[in-house]
Amino acid sequence: MKKSYLLKKIHISPPQVLSITFLITILFGAVLLYLPISTVDPISFLDALFTATSATTVTGLVVLSTGNDFTLFGQTVIMVLMQIGGLGLMTFAVLIVMLLGKKIGLRGRILIQQSFNQYSLGGMIRLVRTIFIFTFAIEFLAAVFLAIRWVPEHGWGVGLYTSIFHSVSAFNNAGFSLWDDSLMGYVGDPTVNIIITLLFITGGIGFTVLYDMWTTKDFRHLSLHSKIMLVGTLVVNIIAMLFLFVSEYSNMQTLGSLTLGDKLWASYFQAVTPRTAGFNSLDIGSMETGSIVLITLLMFIGAGSASTGSGIKLTTFFVILLVVAAHLNGKKEAVIFKRAIPSHLLERSLAIVFISMSAIFIGILILSYTESAPFEWIIFEAFSAFGTVGLSMGLTGELSSVGKLVIMALMFIGRIGPVTLAFALARQHREPVSHPKGDVFTG
Amino acid sequence: MKKSYLLKKIHISPPQVLSITFLITILFGAVLLYLPISTVDPISFLDALFTATSATTVTGLVVLSTGNDFTLFGQTVIMVLMQIGGLGLMTFAVLIVMLLGKKIGLRGRILIQQSFNQYSLGGMIRLVRTIFIFTFAIEFLAAVFLAIRWVPEHGWGVGLYTSIFHSVSAFNNAGFSLWDDSLMGYVGDPTVNIIITLLFITGGIGFTVLYDMWTTKDFRHLSLHSKIMLVGTLVVNIIAMLFLFVSEYSNMQTLGSLTLGDKLWASYFQAVTPRTAGFNSLDIGSMETGSIVLITLLMFIGAGSASTGSGIKLTTFFVILLVVAAHLNGKKEAVIFKRAIPSHLLERSLAIVFISMSAIFIGILILSYTESAPFEWIIFEAFSAFGTVGLSMGLTGELSSVGKLVIMALMFIGRIGPVTLAFALARQHREPVSHPKGDVFTG
Ligand SMILES: [K+]
Ligand SMILES: [K+]
User: By the CB < 8 Å criterion, does B368 face chain A?
Assistant: First the structure.
């Protein structure tokens, strides 16, 4: 309690703590990456700062080759930054959700509160420990599976290290890979496809959903938020997979030259990676414009609240979609899983969408002056940076210095912004408890 | 009252009446334009339908040359369709505003109600007559001024006809020109610049604002809606003009080769035309990417409610901007001209933005498959069509058949959609009368 008393005294809000922590982490990381020990050849401080920002915001856009330009030490710094940025923000968001839980009242949150008793510092520490243990257990388990695939190929040392690096990168939705072509070398490999996607889907769905599933088991008794996240993830992924399968089927630079089995794996992988993992097993720059448009939308939508992923969040998207659909059908309120969506949720969701769009718009506007690249590259990269996705059509490798700063700003705002905004908006709203309405996290 | 009783019996809502009227007008216009008497050489029915849609939705995107492919008869049909589409929708919107006025209560609306007594059929007819007389008087006056410029250049017959055509096209924010390069031949001409822009700004600011100004005179006593429209138009136009002046200053294909005076005229013209007049005095396709991004935003924002212009509307944009700015400054509510913006207005505005963005997104997605053109052309043309602007980077002239259908759908939805949506949303909302809050039209 002493700490929060101190914070009150110097008037720092939780979002400010978050921003400052992230800034310090990034600066510290940049200094480490700038050390001669981190890179094969000397790099500019701007590139060190860019790499640290990309790693800490779990984006994965790179101006240097992670595998070839950085030493084992540099790569380890990147791995630690991803872990801090992914796991750290998730933990922060879960704590915020707990603290706000009293006011908003949501099954998942109450569950967590009851289990950990958030009013005590001990309860908080216990919760953080649980999140950490859960994360490291998942990452360890996944690394073992990946090692079964990669140790035979690369030998014990490199194989194990590669497995750990990609496991951490995937769970934290960071998208950093030790290979310059990301996972294109494993386009039809079942182990890599399954383990990597399971990792980032688990990390991206949000800890509250995982905790809810762990303690509830029965789908019908899950919180509304968990239900929307689970069904929404399934629906969006299936639609995206079918879309990309049809769209790229005869594109010889992507699916066209693959076997049917590999086509299916690649469609699946490219369908799930934009929200907001950022690995790729196909060349994004060679995809059809229509596929690029869909992927851009998916990058904007993003993962779940209180997760290692970013974006406006899947629940934000579904709240808007459901309310609009209800309006167009002439219904007075949107109902899902027998719960009505309260109007303040719509307002909050639309606000997150609008502010996110504005940030991306300003980014695109500046980049259109500083970069001489195809306009769709600029649009794609701005969405990728804001969603901390890391997919690229090629712009990031050719960025000007100002362009690098713009992309860094977008990554930072994209990682911190929606959480901060959701926190600020949720705190403003104090609804009477009597309403029989459902609540979900947004942002 | 007999008519509205009839409408009630067959369950047709005002927006449905509007849609059906527009569809019939477009079909009828297409048939007329398809007649051999309308064109120099035979045209396809699809092109006739496209032209009729573009004219009736006051867009101005063309697949044929208005001046060279159509005969005097065909051009007259186009002129009549523009007048019906522009003036017609404005009149419809004013009537809707009057009918809704009782529930929402706004100075401007109450003024109109008091003057015309909307509860009687006579009051309605009197209002419609006033709007019509006002429109024709403005168009006549402007045509006289234009004739002073164009009769000496083209002789009496062509000069007068050209003046009338462009006057009608400008007041209705239609953007059709008899010249294939629009008004590029008059880039530095004061008369053409002033008259044409005054026409479409007057037509685009909304009849309720004009009526409010006419009856009120003192700015301080204007309705909140009128104040936001007047100040907002000024602010947005000045910012856009400065932006384009700087952005294009040394672009040799646009401002670069012009004198300082012409540079200023051209910056002014291109700054005001995207919301949503659609004439151009510079080659849009040669502009800087940054200018294109700004123009795209302006096309999305659009003109005023109950006007001859389209888009999400300037008030919709400002409501969101003001509320977001207030939130970011930690204020509980957004205040402008001593009025608080009620939260339902924000929700309504965000809904209009979201649905508009969705329509444009789907349009872009389809066009990206059907057209083989630079992606920025597709984006620009989709926004131009939805905003019924008519500016083009070049795509419309090269559209495939499916592409034409998509652009037609966007023009239709863009012209009818926001009004319909605003109507539906406004009707849902019944606020207690006691609030000291301001109200503005959106959509
Ligand atoms: K990522
Ligand atoms: K127009």
Answer: yes
Does A330 fall in a domain? yes
Please state, in angstroms and rounded to a whole number, the distance separating the CA atoms of residues A96 and A423.
8
List C-alpha distances in Å: A168 to A86, B117, B365.
9, 71, 35
- Give the dihedral of Cα atoms B390, B393, B394, B399; nearest 10 deg: -70
Tell me whether strands A335-336 and B335-336 are parallel, antiparallel or unpaired: unpaired
**Beta carbons of B325 and B334 less than 8 angstroms apart:** yes
Helices B72-104 and B45-56, interaxial angle, to 10°? 40
Report which residue type is found at A246: V
Tally: H helices and E strands in chain B: 16, 2
B369 contacts A288? CB cut-off 8 A: yes
Residue B439: inside a domain, yes or no?
no
Q: Which residue has the higher pLDDT, B442 or B431?
A: B442
From B294, B351, B365, residue closest to A293, measured CB to CB: B365
Whether A354 sits inside 8 A of B350 (CB atoms) is yes
Q: Is A343 on the interface with B (CB under 8 A)?
A: yes
> E strands along A270-336, which residues?
335-336
* Partners of B335 in beta bridges: B340
Which of A247, A293, A320 lies closest to B364 in CB terms? A293
For B368, the domain range is 2-428
Inter-chain CB proximity A347 and B351 less than 8 Å: no
Q: What is the pLDDT of residues B219-269, one digit of tens each?
A: 888 888 888 999 999 999 999 999 999 999 999 999 999 999 999 999 999
Q: Is A214 exposed, middle or buried (0-12, 13-18, 19+ CB in 10 A)?
A: exposed
Count the neighbouring beta carbons within 10 Å of the beta carbon of residue A427.
16
Residue B247 lies in a domain: yes
Cβ atoms A299, A383 nearer than 8 A: yes
CB contact at 8 A, B382 and B367: yes
Neighbouring CB atoms inside 10 A of A386's CB total: 31
Burial of B432 (C-beta count, 10 Å sphere; 0-12/13-18/19+): exposed
Cβ proximity of B310 and B203 under 8 Å: no
Q: What is the DSSP letter of A339?
A: E
- Ligand in closest contact with the CA of B299: 2
Number of domains in chain A: 1
CA dist A414 and A338 (Å) reads 33
ipTM of the complex model: 0.79
Cβ B60 vs Cβ B72: under 8 Å:
no
- Dump pLDDT digits (tens) for B25-35: 999 999 999 99
Sequence-distant (≥ 6) Cβ neighbours of residue B218 within 8 angstroms: none
B398 lies in some domain: yes
Q: Count contacts between A and B (CB, < 8 Å).
A: 83
CA distance B271 to B255: 13
| B333 C-beta neighbours (distance < 10 Å), count | 15
Tokens of A12: 């720092």
